[in-house]
Amino acid sequence: MEVLRRSSVFAAEVMEVFDRSPTDKELVSQAKALCRDYINSRLIRVGVSWSKPEYNMPVPGGKLAEVSTILLRLGDELEYIRPNVYRNIARQLNISLHSETVVTDAFLAVATQIFTAGITWGKVVSLYAVAAGLAVDCVKHAQPAMVHTIVDCLGEFVRKTLVTWLKRRGGW
């Protein structure tokens, strides 16, 4: 009988691991990893380098690498369809890239505007494209450290606005 009880407990623990939905912290961490990967891809595409990888975070692996690939592909399509929307973000917003507060406030205002009529995967991709466009502007204007601010800001936006929605969809 004891063996049966132990095996039932073990089975329940195994199922919990497989059935467990991601935590808020995991979703935010994944969102930031995806953002860094997306930004890095865009910086490479425009021929500029981001030489201050202060976060020793691994690149997305496993399922998150698949999500990153899909996110980048969808971002390519979105940016191809509307190139003027996702380039020269700082100029479009008429902001200086020398102030962390200005960049953060501007990014959060755009992010909030994107999601005013609800959340969709397309809008999530758009959020990443805006973050990358702003990051490219920062690097081009000798403000590479500001890229980390954008990544953190996106993570905070995900925590406050998108986590519940992501959880309902099983995460990334």
TrEMBL record:
Main localization category: membrane
Signal peptide as annotated in the record: none
Compartments, as annotated in UniProt: Membrane
GO biological process per UniProt: extrinsic apoptotic signaling pathway in absence of ligand; intrinsic apoptotic signaling pathway in response to DNA damage; positive regulation of apoptotic process; release of cytochrome c from mitochondria
Residue ranges of every copy of the Bcl-2 Bcl-2 homology region 1-3 domain listed in the record: 71-172
Pfam families per record: Bcl-2
Keywords assigned by UniProt, alphabetized: Apoptosis, Membrane, Transmembrane, Transmembrane helix
Claim: Transmembrane helix is one of the keywords in the record: yes
Keyword Zinc included in the entry's annotation: no
Matching CDD domains: Bcl-2_like (cd06845)
Topology class, membrane: Single-pass membrane protein
GO-annotated cellular components: mitochondrial outer membrane
Gene Ontology MF annotations: BH domain binding
Family affiliation: Belongs to the Bcl-2 family.
Protein name (Swiss-Prot/TrEMBL): BOK protein
Species name: Turnix velox (Little buttonquail)
